[in-house]
Model the fold of this input.
Amino acid sequence: MKRAFITGITGQDGSYLAELLLSKGYTVYGLYRRKSSLDFGNVAHIAHRITMIEGDLLDYPSLVAAIKESRPDEVYNLAAQSFVGASFRQPVATAEIDALGVVHLLEAIRSVKPDARFYQASTSELFGGVYDTPCNEETPFYPRSPYGVAKLYAHWITKNYRENYGVFACAGILFNHESERRGKEFVTRKITSTVAAIKHGEAECLELGNLSSKRDWGHAADYVRAMWLMLQQERPAEFVIATGETRTVREFAELAFRKAGYDIRFEGEGENEVGIDSKSGKILLRVNPAFFRPAEVNVLLGDSSKAKNELGWEREVMFSELVSRMVSSDIKKLG
Ligand code: NAP
Ligand code: F7E
Done:
């Protein structure tokens, strides 16, 4: 029976990956952070099937102890300060966790279990300001946020440990992936949870920043399958994982409202743009400049041909179904 150690197990991807590995018969270990109120986040429902180990990416001794205890065949490093917006306000913490945290973990692996296979959660934010889309494994990087810059270090140190020390280290360059478990500060879940609140009469209006920003959005359950596939290959490598389609924030919001039974039309431009309910004439969506970023990544679109050819990876959840599932789940939760 294979053993896997997942950091970031309480987050969105960690929970889907834990479910996938349990279904494949793995013994699963997960790293959780000490908090004032103990909760296992997105894995609370399966925590009894996982050995949860307390630790922190910032704390090397706790990682050494975790690797000693779990003796993993596979390590998935999903832990991160993952919100781009917060990285502008907390650049140092973001760098410490997302960049240095990774070298702590790689060192712990190298000294305790050097034959463990390692997956690093790289990101399409590495491409950032690149306008030559779709991006693939050969596209040059140009990160546009402290988050992207920290992840760039993590990406290269992962490759470096492979080349210098022979660690079986892979990096998945994943484009945005969302789900019913997505944190509520990310734009998709902010939209679906607010649409649900409006539907239940608990909110009046959704406030967003840049509506014209474009993202390549898939479902997290499909993307964790790609992580696992990468570690089953003969040789470690980098892979882009994406849907190959891109939509604006405006399109996501329009569809989410439609799934909840509202037909909204957009009027105005820039900071004055609003989304109006065609039936009642009420303003359901407003632009609030407070949600704009100091530096924006305007468009992301990925080409995952390599993953299709070499891993046999395909996404199963289409954009419309992703939005439906998130909206229904949020409406149900409030109900
Ligand atoms: P998420 O829901 O924000 O989960 C992040 C996880 O990291 C949480 O379990 C969090 O624990 C943990 N964590 C944060 N700081 C830590 C620290 N210092 N030590 C140990 N654990 C720590 O993120 P996600 O969406 O699942 O993303 C998973 C990974 O993929 C992240 O590395 C993210 O940057 C990367 N990524 C995500 C996407 C995407 O679209 N979702 C795309 C590309 C790459 P708490 O529960 O205690 O906060
Ligand atoms: O923003 C715009 C915002 O915060 C998407 C993380 O998982 O994917 C994620 O990063 C877009 C941006 O995700 C609001 O300006 C407009 O252009 O949902 P987001 P992200 O920044 O793309 C990458 C691949 C990761 O690696 C990250 O970990 O939406 N936007 N109005 C808004 N964004 C937010 N959050 N809130 C708004 O009100």
